[in-house]
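Render this sequence as a predicted structure.
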Amino acid sequence: MPQPQFLSVGEGERRREIAVLAQPGSGPAVVWLGGFRSDMRATKAEALAAWAQAKGRSFIRFDYAGHGESSGDFARWTLSDWLDDALAVLAAQVAGPAVLVGSSMGGWLALLAARRLRERAPGQAPAGLVLIAPAVDFSEELMWAQMPQAVRETILNDGVWLRPSAYAPEPTPITRALIEDGRRHLLFGQPIETGCPVHILQGMKDPDVPYDQALRLVEHLPHDPVVLTLVKDGDHRLSTPEDIERLVAAVEGIAPAAG
């Protein structure tokens, strides 16, 4: 198993050590942005690592603060922190435009990173985006808006609610800070500009991110070339061998257009 290097992000009490796995190769670099409480050694990331190794492509993956092998308690961090983690890894590991591959929450972060880079570091603006079940605005649209009033009151009064998880034995802490910070980054309701090709992969039997979220995202990308692949029997993970083939094909299809 390859061992990560660590990148220090933040200052003082917000300082954390971000675990990074970087495979050298030709470009444009492919950068994996994982999902909420996922990690960089999950199935799709490992599959892309194997593809990159076979093709001699540069591939970078990392764990956000409080995820996987990075430091910090999960409940302490919010979307702003995880966006900063992603931008710090890009700044440290990528010399030019990269292909950002964002899964679930990583899809939202990829879009936010693309906007930030276009504003502040145009030379690093993404060459393309591949978004897997992109959970755009999930803290508001897929969490807060769907929660019973009793759960909302628990979050507001106690600062956290422990949500049972379908993917792990322990519950997932949903904090008031996560919900409130998420509102600073909402994208729906205004055009989204990425300045690059976008390929969205979305399962139609996804219980976590309904496929109408992907349709909404396409509508919010009026100026970018967008391909939407709907997988009729696909779930949220999209990790079957057929799903992996679609993912690799999407990345390969975006990357040549990038350079």
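Summary. The mean pLDDT is 95. The first strand starts at residue 5 and ends at 9.
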